[in-house]
Design goal:
Strand content of chain A: over 45%
Number of helices of chain B: 1
CATH architecture of the largest domain in chain A: Beta Barrel
Number of strands of chain B: 11
Strand content of chain B: 35-45%
Largest sheet of chain A: 22 strands, antiparallel, barrel
Largest interface: A-B, 43 and 35 residues
Radius of gyration of chain B: 22 Å
CATH class of chain B: Mainly Beta
CATH architecture of chain B: Sandwich
Shape of chain A: globular
Strand order of the largest sheet of chain B: 3-2-1-5-8-7
Number of domains of chain B: 1
Shape of chain B: elongated
Number of domains of chain A: 2
Largest sheet of chain B: 6 strands, antiparallel
CATH class of the largest domain in chain A: Mainly Beta
Oligomer: heterodimer
Helix content of chain A: under 10%
CATH topology of chain B: Immunoglobulin-like
Helix content of chain B: 10-25%
């Protein structure tokens, strides 16, 4: 038996993976114990865990236990691995990054997007602290696939900017981000990339002992508090997992402690799962209940955004999910494993206006399922599989623009990975059939020809990775992706209060089709790693909602009901997105680590007389994180540079409107945020973390004190929809206490 | 003990599964696409109407204490055409009064009664109620009872 301990604190280290070559032999339990069967002269093994330097050595049969001490480092020097049902766990042929449980617990961000904003190429489109969505390489909404343990969430986060992603990040085991088109392994709608939240609430392996981890935090910028915990263990033949999070926060304060109204929030998430897990696979079920109540801001300092409610809007969202998953690893020479999984989700969301009136109520039932057979033959490794999805979206209320509709999707795919020496090739194809049927075909003055639409597309990917001398590796991939128009893009007919727009769909829209090329050069050495990626993607029939112009007056077209909102309608243009991203992590000594990352995303319309930038593109970023570790104490300073975003499209209608919001005759008037440039900013953050030694407490604990926006600088985010009137949060002091056993 | 715990866990999961099969919005019936509301008395005389549902053309309604007023409420679409919803069983008119002790609403098929209960002043707003939600909420209208 091996006893794995932290070299600094002597605390046992759990979840350390013991590998012999590519094969996972075992993992340590909550007391850092692991038993590995070895024969003869012993086995060469590697011990790995995020946050520690890998340990390599030979273990031999011995009657007594052996202690191994892992040195904690901030650098993850091993290759970044991601999980997909088709290929299991491995390195993707794309730019990827992983945020581990410790980083998630350190930040305790209220949303998935906020938990990922420090990753290169990832930003957040926000409409309040809770209503944020991840943006990858400038694409968001329906073009970024957000998954929980590989399954669709079944919420309506992608349909509007005020909707939250209903996944609680605090109790996730890790979050994997795959940048660029990844439709082959994860499904259609992945033009921008994939965010896969790994929670493992259906345990895939049987723990030898009950483990428990808890975090609690408090922060000053919104007087927020929260607590989260997760536990897993075994009971008879069953393995179980439970987790839960509760959080509450008041209004967020900008610089000089000025509160931004209607940014308060409450959230609750609980989940439980049961499985039978063994060496041949696992089978289990899990249930999850998520609830949040949050405000959508509309005014700041007495100025209300054009079209917004001066009383704000509150959103009450609730998601109930039942999930099942099974995998059987066979002894067959050709069939490696058979894996099936699915979920059923009931989602409802009410949007309250001033006075408690329900402006819009959404309800959705959704179910999805996937079946995959993983195959192997010599140096080939691949899979064939199928995916089905069904969703029934309905909406009601006094101000609702969403039409009820049913969407069905069926897909078949095949993928093959071939490895020979230092070369790995990947090829695959997928065929998708998607049908969207409106449940209400009533035509209005602006919405005509409401009918069922069906889309079929063949997509695929081809990639290669070659390992070069001196620790270098080059990866490239060309991929074709596809996205059918959403229900809202096809059939919307009404105001969306939190978007400050009156949206009219177009039932004749075509599907978006993207072709992307990625090139990634990475290096791994003894004291660091670095990677730089460049990408380009052409998207045909890119859908963008654009404000409409009254053909008679030349003024912005106002909605026919209230004459209050500007009418937006989807237009299709060909678009080109390109950019570079990079990250370099270096540890010159065991005490010092430097982490430099940055991204430069660009997007423009193709064709036409002038090339217009795409609306709502993130700005370039450059971030340097310097940490000094001395025993159990870590000190960090982070410089977060956000460049100005001046590449914005020309507003189609000016009509005297400007980016500065002005009040005329009691009405706020101004251009929508996507047509307005954003100045840059340099933010400074600081961190102190103290890992309490095991002898000082019964349970290993870590205290982390962070100060974001240390200098209380006023800054605006290009993707913040209220940027014209409201700044981003001011100085925030956060204390997080983590314990685990 | 273990068997009981297992049985309880399975029951909880089954209950969650059954809950997940019930659609939050069970019935889909056509939305009342009202842009404005017209309020008339029993003789068909227009008392007031909303303008783009942002303000009332006549901003107050005067009632006599003890004298109920029979009014007809008619929704108007964005083209100005009056909508007839009298046959819609899932649609009704409601009244929301700031001081409910002063004025109350008694809905009838096709019209309704405004009952004043004492002198004073309050604000009311009309709602077109569709199933379990409002399809339309008017601005506040001042009501004076003399």
């Amino acid at each position: 038996m091996l006893l794995v301990r932290d070299a600094d604190t002597q605390a046992p280290v759990r979840d350390v993976v013991v590998r012999a070559g590519d094969r996972v032999l075992a993992r340590t339990d909550s007391l850092g114990r692991v038993t590995v069967r070895v024969v003869g002269a012993g086995t060469e093994v590697t011990l790995q865990r995020l946050g520690y330097a890998p340990w390599r050595g030979r273990i031999v049969p011995a009657p007594a236990s052996r202690a191994i001490r892992l040195t904690p480092v901030r650098l993850e020097l091993a290759a970044v691995e991601v999980r997909s049902r088709a290929l299991g766990r491995g390195s993707a042929l794309q730019a990827t990054s992983v945020v581990g449980a410790e980083q998630l617990a350190e930040r305790l961000a209220p949303s998935i997007a906020a938990a990922l904003v420090d990753e290169p190429g990832v930003s957040a489109r926000s409409n309040g602290p809770m209503a944020t969505q991840p943006v990858i390489r400038g694409l968001t909404g329906d073009r970024v696939l957000v998954l929980e343990d590989g399954m669709r969430t079944g919420d309506i986060a992608t349909t509007a900017p005020d909707h939250a992603v209903t996944i609680e990040p605090a109790t996730a085991e890790r979050i994997e981000v795959i940048r660029g088109p990844g439709g082959l392994l994860y499904g259609s709608n992945t033009l921008g990339g994939v965010v896969n939240v790994i929670r493992d609430d259906i345990p895939r392996r049987r723990p030898s002992q009950t483990s428990l981890a808890m975090s609690t935090f408090g922060e000053s910028v919104n007087r927020g508090i929260g607590v989260s915990g997760r536990a897993r263990g075994a009971m008879g033949a069953l393995t179980w997992a439970v987790d839960g999070t509760g959080r509450q926060a008041g209004d967020t304060r900008g610089p000089n402690a000025v509160a931004l109204p209607f940014t308060d929030l409450e959230g609750m998430d609980v989940g439980a799962g049961l499985s039978v897990a063994g060496s041949r696979g696992h089978a289990g079920v899990a249930a999850r209940e998520y609830r949040s109540y949050y405000g959508v801001p509309s005014s700041f300092g007495g100025v209300t955004l054009p079209g917004a409610h001066d009383g704000g809007v509150y959103v009450d969202a609730r998601r109930t999910q039942l999930r099942w998953d099974a995998e059987w690893r066979t002894d067959d020479a050709r069939i490696e494993a058979i894996s099936v999984g699915g979920n059923a989700v009931r989602f409802e969301q009410s949007e309250f206006e001033q006075g408690g009136i329900v402006g819009t109520r959404f309800g959705q039932l959704a179910a999805s399922g996937e079946a995959v057979m993983r195959l192997r033959a010599g140096e080939h490794r691949g899979a064939i599989g199928s995916f089905v999805q069904w969703r029934d979206l309905r909406a009601e209320g006094s101000f609702t623009g969403t039409r009820p509709a049913v969407q069905r999707t069926l897909a078949l795919f095949a993928v093959d990975e071939y490895t020979r020496g230092s070369l790995t090739l990947l090829a695959g194809a997928r065929i998708d059939r998607s049908e969207t049927r409106p449940l209400d075909s009533t035509e209005t003055l602006l919405l005509r020809d409401v009918r069922t639409r069906a889309f079929t597309a063949v997509t695929g990917a081809f990639g290669a990775r070659v390992q070069l001398p001196a620790g270098f590796e080059f990866t490239t991939q060309i991929a074709r992706a596809f996205r059918p128009p959403s229900i809202e893009e096809l059939y919307s007919a009404g105001p969306h209060l939190a978007s400050y727009a009156y949206e009219i769909g177009d039932p004749s829209l075509e599907a978006e089709r993207g072709t992307g090329v990625d090139a990634l050069l990475s290096w791994r050495g003894g004291r660091g790693r670095a990677e730089v990626s460049a990408y380009g993607m052409r998207v045909d029939d890119y859908v963008a909602f654009e404000p409409q112009v009254d053909p008679v007056t030349g003024a912005p077209m106002r909605d026919p009901r209230l004459r209050r909102y500007v009418v937006y309608r989807p237009q299709q243009v060909d678009a080109l997105l390109w950019g570079v991203e990079g990250r370099a992590m270096f540890a010159p000594t065991p005490q010092w680590t430097f982490d430099l990352s940055g991204a430069l995303p660009r997007g423009a319309q193709r064709g036409g007389a002038t090339s217009q930038p795409l609306p709502a593109m993130p700005a370039a970023t450059l971030r340097l994180d310097v940490r000094h570790q001395r025993g159990p104490l870590t000190l960090g300073v982070i410089g977060d540079g956000r460049f100005a975003q001046r590449l914005v499209p020309d507003a189609p209608v000016l009509d005297g409107l400007a980016c500065t919001v002005q009040v005329v005759d009691g009405e706020a008037q101004g251009l929508p945020a996507e047509f307005c440039a954003t100045p840059g900013a340099m933010l400074m953050n600081a961190l102190v973390a103290w890992r309490l030694p095991a002898r000082a407490t019964r349970w290993p604990a870590t205290l982390t004190l962070t100060v974001d926006n240390l200098l209380d600088a006023e800054w605006r985010d290009p993707l913040w929809r209220a940027k014209q009137v409201a700044p981003q949060p001011g100085r925030n002091v956060r204390l997080v206490v983590q314990v685990e056993r | 003990m273990m068997r009981r715990l297992r049985a309880m866990a399975v029951c909880v999961l089954v209950a969650c599964g059954l809950t997940a099969c019930d659609h939050p919005i069970g019935i889909v019936s056509a939305h009342i696409e009202a842009a404005d509301l017209v309020v008339r008395d029993s003789a068909g005389v227009e008392l007031t109407r909303t303008s783009f549902n942002r303000r009332w053309m006549v901003d107050s309604l005067v009632l006599r204490d003890g004298a109920s007023l029979r009014v007809t409420i008619t929704p108007v679409d964005f083209r100005g055409a009056e909508l007839d919803v009298s046959e819609r069983r899932d649609v009704s008119y409601r009244l929301d009064a700031e001081r409910a002790e002063l004025v109350q609403w008694e809905p009838q098929r096709g019209f309704g009664w405004l009952h004043p209960f004492g002198r004073g002043e309050t604000r009311v707003r009309f709602l077109i109620w569709h199933g379990d939600h409002a399809d339309f909420v008017s601005p506040w209208l001042r009501v004076v009872i003399r």
